[in-house]
Amino acid sequence: MVIQVRARSSEAKAARRAEILEQARGLLATTRYPALTLADIAARVGLTKPALFAYFASKEELFLELYESLLLGWLDALEKHLRLGGVHTPQSLATLVTAMSAEHPDLLRLIPLLAGLLEHNIGAARALQHKRWLAGRLQPVTPLLERVLPGLQEGGGMRLLTYTQALIAGLQPMSEPAPAVREAVAESGLGAMHVDLFTALQDSLAALYQGLSSRRQ
Known about the structure:
Largest sheet: none
Low-confidence stretches: none
Helix content: 55-70%
Number of strands: 0
Mean pLDDT: 91
C-alpha cells in the first residue's frame, strides 16, 4: 500500500478528516468497537497510525466526532418533519422516531458507546465543546416536540430526547448479542428472549411518550 503524506492545506485536512470518519463508519458496520483499532482505520486511508493522530487525538475523539455527524443528520430529519406541523399521539410519535432510527443504523451502533466509552479519554475542552454543540443543536428541536405532542410540558422536549437515547443505548446491544449468546439462545428453544430492536423500541417509546405527555403541572 502506498502511504499518503499528511494533508497540508486546510481544505485538504478537512477532506482527509472526512475520509477518516467515513472509513471508521464503514469499519464500525462490520467490526465491534472494542476490536476496531486506529491502525485499522489508518490503513484504510493510507496513513500510518502516528499520522492519524494529527487528525484525532484518540479513538474516542474520532468516534465522538462521527457520532456528532450522524446525530446531526438524525436531528435534521426530525426537525424537518416536526416543522411540517400537525400533532402526534404518543404512539404515532414513537412510530416516527422508530422509523427514523431504523434509517440511521450506524448512529444506533454508536449511541450505546457514548456515555461509557466515547466521553472517556477526551479532554475537558473537547467535552465542553461537545456538550455546547449538542445543547445548541437541540435548542430548536425541543420546543417543536412540545408543540406537536399535546400534554408535553415546557422542558419536556429535552427529557424526551434524552430518554429516547437512553432507551436506544439499552436496547441496541440486547438486539445484537455476542455470537455465543446468539447460538445458545437459538439452540435452547429460548428464541423468545431475543430482543428485536425496532419492536422493542417502538413499544418502549410509546410508553415513555405517554408518560411524559400525561404528567400533571
